[in-house]
Design a protein that fits this description.
The structure is a single chain. The chain is α+β, with helices and mostly antiparallel strands and about 625 residues long. It contains 21 helices and 11 strands. α9 runs parallel beside α13 and α14 runs antiparallel to α17. It is elongated and about 85 Å long.
Length: about 625
């Protein structure tokens, strides 16, 4: 077995795979079986290299110093030999040769000057030609002699430059320097090309180009199908397909105007100078964006506006009567927004593109989002849509369903099932807005671009699918007893506790791992400088926040009873979504953290459900 050459912790020069470039790395370990060194680059990347791809730093520094110091030593020794009194004849010969060189240089310079002057004499334009070229009369030329004098002074210099370039009369040192600069530019261009190619999205999700193309049509169709089914007297799966309404009944300009008013009202609340300004996580170029945390203030202002409308007897159940038209308006707006986002992303710099939406395929990048953080000035479009119009709109829709139930069934107060659904989901929305800063550490903000997937999800899927239970209860009232309501409430509280405490642990640890309040948490260090929690909720399962989400989703659906499976679509969808996200997170974390993630998976074997999955 050959002995290892480099020790652990030694700083050496490692060759980047697939190139001839060497970078400074640190040896972290050595595998005696495969004879590969595990090295860590300055950016935190860990790779396995062969011994032949690793060099000592001294070899690079020695070559550089040798090439730079050899020439001066020769010159100094030659000068000392020429001045030696013991060799006068040789010294005189060297002096004569040096004088001949100076004469040749002077003669060459004289020739260059003579040729340049000759060309200037032959090709010097006359004053009349100059006047005709400038398009000015002769009288004006006489009055503006200062400008003519300036042109006459500048033209010989420009002509001389042209002649020297045409006849290659420059000294060889300048030509050599020019070649060196050109070669350096070529190296930098090559490195830039390699970096640009490495930033491309290579692994496609959602079925690649074909899958994302189908999802662009499948997601809106799913929303409309669910809403049409809820309108049926018997929303059973056996009644497929539901009767389709006339196309002209799906669109109304007034409804679209109300939707635009809602969207821009939330944008106005977003721009209000209230709430603190915080920094997001560092981007790939090291820059941190600033975000104003005022989502809860926007919710309070919205509640005050809705209260004023109800005080003046505005019929809020108008939302229920035109629910399908509102869904169509939101879908049309999200599509227009997605097109705008993709067009503007084509001019975005390479470092501002999303890691997962830079494949080079139009359909895939359009769906997943090409630009990571599209902004109009300080207005962050993705961050705004993530929590404001859709999430707050979800609560307003639930309230409209509650009022519609009371009106349609002539009730003095809403049913217990409707109260539970509204209360549980209101708690979820208020919690998200109160802990708005925590969203800055999620994959939606740090990794996913803003394209059709998030635009449609934020503006259509969240408000119109998440309110499915309340919409269902309007047409299909379900009576539950107080003990059942108490049990469902306890279940929702358990899910909320798991969800909130897990997210708070993660967000606090990412923000400040050295916080004394988190001293009880243990973690596995990684090459990126971040740590992987192995205690608390994150030592119980790998994604405890997803576990809390699923428990709450079940509690939201139970008040609808068990007559139909339609209200439980949200639970089924949520499980599928979180399993997909979990698989995506697993792949992303394995690439990001490398060997540390493998140790973490051994320490925490269960992904979402303890002892099950």
């Amino acid at each position: 077995m050959p002995n290892r050459r480099f020790a652990d912790g030694e700083v050496v020069m490692g060759r980047w795979p697939g190139s001839v470039l060497y970078y400074e790395v640190q040896v972290t370990s050595y595998d005696d079986v495969s004879h590969l060194y595990t090295v860590k680059y300055k950016d935190g990347t860990e790779l396995e290299l062969k011994e032949s791809d690793i060099r000592l730093q001294s070899s690079f520094k020695h070559r550089k110093s040798q090439s730079s110091s050899s020439s001066p030593s020769r010159r100094s020794s030659s000068r000392s030999r020429s001045r030696s009194p013991g060799r006068p004849a040789k010294g005189r010969r060297r002096s004569s040769s040096q004088s001949r060189e100076r004469k040749d240089d002077k003669k060459k310079t004289t020739q260059e000057s003579s040729i340049a002057q000759l060309v200037l004499v032959l090709f010097k334009p006359s004053e009349n030609n100059t006047r005709r070229y400038n398009g000015e009369p002769e009288s004006t030329e006489r009055n503006d002699t200062s400008r003519v004098t300036l042109e006459q002074k500048l033209k010989p210099d420009l002509e001389t430059e042209r002649v020297l370039e045409q006849y290659s009369l420059r000294p060889r040192k300048e030509e050599k320097k020019k070649e060196e600069i050109y070669s350096e530019k070529k190296i930098f261009e090559t490195i830039k090309t390699i970096e640009k190619a490495s930033s491309k999205t290579k692994e496609l999700e959602f079925g690649g180009r074909i899958g994302t193309f189908m999802l662009i049509f499948f997601l809106p169709a799913t929303v409309f199908y669910l809403l049409l089914m809820c309108k049926q007297d018997d929303p059973s799966l056996m009644n497929f397909p539901p009767p389709l309404p006339a196309l002209e009944s799906l669109w109304e300009a007034r409804v679209f105007g109300v939707f635009l008013l809602w969207f821009f009202l939330q944008a106005l609340f977003y721009l209000l100078p209230v709430g603190k300004v915080v920094e997001g996580l560092p981007l790939s170029n090291g820059r941190k964006l600033h975000y104003r945390i005022n989502g809860f203030y926007a919710f309070v202002l919205t509640a005050a506006a809705i209260g004023a409308l109800l005080y003046f007897e505005f019929e809020l159940h108008y939302l229920y009567d035109h629910f399908m038209q509102f869904a169509v308006s939101a879908a049309a707006f999200s599509m227009a927004l997605s097109i705008y986002l993709y067009i503007r992303s084509l001019k975005a710099p390479e470092e501002e593109l999303a890691p997962g939406g830079n494949s080079g395929y139009f359909v895939y990048d359009f769906f997943t989002g090409h630009e990571l953080n599209p902004r109009i000035g300080s207005f962050d479009l993705k961050y705004f849509c993530e929590l404001r119009p859709g999430l707050i709109g979800w609560v307003v829709i639930n309230l409209a369903m509650l009022l519609a139930e009371m009106k349609i069934h002539n009730q003095s107060m809403p049913s217990l099932s409707m109260i539970l659904v509204n209360s549980f989901q209101l708690l979820y929305v208020v919690d998200a807005l109160w802990n708005e800063e925590a969203i800055l550490t999620t994959m939606d903000i740090t990794h996913d671009g803003f394209g059709f997937m998030l635009a449609f999800g934020d503006l259509v899927w969240v408000p119109f699918v998440y309110s499915l239970q309340a919409f269902y209860l309007v047409g299909h009232p379900t009576a539950i007893s107080w003990p059942v309501a108490a049990a469902i409430t306890i279940l929702n509280c358990i899910g909320y506790y798991v969800f909130r405490s897990a997210n708070s642990q993660k967000n606090s640890f990412r923000r400040n791992p050295a916080d004394p309040k988190l001293a009880y948490l243990k973690f596995i260090p990684t090459a990126t400088g971040k740590g992987l929690l192995v205690t608390g909720w994150w030592g119980f399962v790998r994604h405890p926040n997803y576990l809390g989400d699923i428990i709450m989703a079940l509690a939201w659906s139970l008040p609808c009873g068990f007559n139909h499976i339609l209200p439980y679509f949200y639970v089924i969808y949520f499980i599928c979504l979180l399993v997909h996200r979990e698989a995506r997170d697993e792949h992303h974390c394995k690439q990001k953290y490398g060997l540390a993630w493998e140790r973490y998976c051994q320490r925490v074997p269960y992904r979402i459900f303890p002892y099950i999955y």
